[in-house]
Design goal:
alpha+beta; 2-methylcitrate dehydratase PrpD; 2 domains; 5-stranded mixed sheet; two-stranded antiparallel sheet; 10% strand; MmgE/PrpD_sf; Ser_deHydtase-like_asu
Length: 421
């Protein structure tokens, strides 16, 4: 592969991972799948069957849905069928209203939800049965990656043939740094939209309870106004606005709005606080994206560990070292600092509490970078921390995907038990 081909490949990876999404991406993905099924089926609805992986269910179960007060996986299905325009992609719920929910709620008794417990990647399958037709829509591997639309009689799908691309693992951190240094600025201008969109989301969150509490803590002297603290506040307020169900669009990273918030705002707000120029900031965001994509290729789309901390936050930390003029070794040190500290932060579903996790993720991202710049780095001999770029994430993936495989089911069991009380 030539350097130009490699650059084009990296750009495609970044741009395909960026999408504007209104609302948490898991309910949106469910609604998009259901809306696509409704668009392709004829007749009056009689049955609605939805099967999904447990990680997706976990993330969609209690999070806010934009524009309405009700929550739940079944609600996401119903509003997708009644009010979702699949042509809008991940922005299909941006105009959702309570009136739409009132129309959709009549479908709730029809909806049957089951789990694909063997699937380790994102999976949604909606089957709609009408008085004259049956259609099945399957999403696999990414929130908006619809791989099949079929009418009855249905054939069994070979999901292995739709396996998620891991070709990014053929590249190194040095490749990503070289790309960030040399990609034409015009090619990464769209990253500015991500910064601006997510900063706007943060402004919404600053007017909500999270923003008011953080402002009071700062005024009371319990928090400061350092670059670290201001970066934390900016990221957490954006996440709070989004997780609360507000009609707040954000730019995603690797299909996740909260990862997009962590990545863009940790980098951009730190750059603003330290007066780092716009070009360097955009190049840093490009580097952060590549690292995030690389990590996600190992741990998967819906890991039982919080990707804001150990994927997007890790990418942001590398980007901060980059903006400060640090070396590849210092970037490795920043990553080891994160992996040696917050690797065990669980993903127990999307909800307002994720905003607090982003508070932690932004903090550890910035501090890990600053410590690495001063030569303070976790040893590669510690715990699960690896001694090479790929080994760090091979180890992490083994713990998350093999060691913690039962964790998602356990978390869903706990969440369902709480709901049944």
């Amino acid at each position: 592969m030539t350097e130009l081909e490699k650059r084009a490949y990296f750009l495609d990876k970044i741009m395909s991972s960026m999408k504007i999404a209104t609302g948490c991406t898991e309910p949106v993905a469910i609604a998009l799948n259901a809306a696509t099924a409704r668009k392709n089926v004829k007749g009056e609805l009689k049955e609605i069957h939805v099967k999904m992986d447990m990680g997706l269910f976990r993330n969609a179960m209690t999070v806010g849905i934009p524009g309405i007060s009700k929550r739940g996986v079944d609600v996401s299905v119903a509003v997708g069928i009644v009010a979702g325009d699949p042509d809008k992609g991940m922005d299909l719920l941006s105009t959702l209203t309570e009136a739409d929910y009132e129309k959709a709620k009549v479908l709730l008794p029809m909806i049957e939800i089951t789990f694909n417990e063997e699937c380790t990647s994102l999976f949604i399958e909606t089957t709609l049965v009408t008085d004259c037709d049956s259609v099945r829509v399957t999403t696999f591997g990414a929130h908006d990656r619809i791989i099949d639309i079929s009418h009855a009689p249905f054939k069994e799908l070979e999901l292995a043939n739709a396996a998620v691309d891991t070709s990014i693992q053929n590249y190194t951190l040095a490749d990503f740094i070289e790309f960030a240094n040399n990609v034409p600025l015009a090619d990464i201008e769209p990253l500015q939209t991500g910064i601006d969109t997510n900063l706007a989301a943060s402004e919404v969150g600053k007017q909500m309870l999270m923003g008011k509490v953080l402002s009071k803590l700062t005024a009371d002297g319990m928090m400061d106004s350092s670059a670290v603290a201001e970066t934390q506040k900016t990221a957490t307020c954006a996440a709070y606005a989004r997780m609360s169900g507000g009609v707040v669009p954000v730019m995603t990273a690797s299909g996740s709005g909260n990862q997009g918030i962590t990545l863009y705002l940790t980098i951009a707000k730190f750059a603003m606080e330290k007066n780092i120029d716009r070009e360097t900031t955009l190049r840093a965001v490009a580097l952060g994206h590549m690292v995030n994509i690389y990590v996600k290729s190992y741990i998967g789309v819906l890991s039982p560990i919080c990707s804001c901390g150990i994927a997007a936050g890790l990418g942001a930390s590398v980007a901060i070292v980059y903006m400060l003029g640090g070396s590849e070794d210092q970037m490795m040190g920043a990553m080891r600092n994160i992996l040696g500290s917050v690797s065990g932060m669980l993903c127990d579903g999307a909800k307002e509490g994720c905003a607090t996790k982003l508070l932690i993720a932004a903090n550890i991202s910035v501090l890990s970078a600053l410590m690495a710049m001063e030569g303070l780095c976790t040893s590669p001999a510690d715990g699960i921390v690896g001694d090479t770029f790929p080994k760090m994430f091979e180890n992490l993936a083994y713990v998350a995907n093999v060691g913690m495989k039962p964790a998602t089911k356990a978390m869903v069991d706990v969440m369902l038990a709480k709901r049944s009380k």
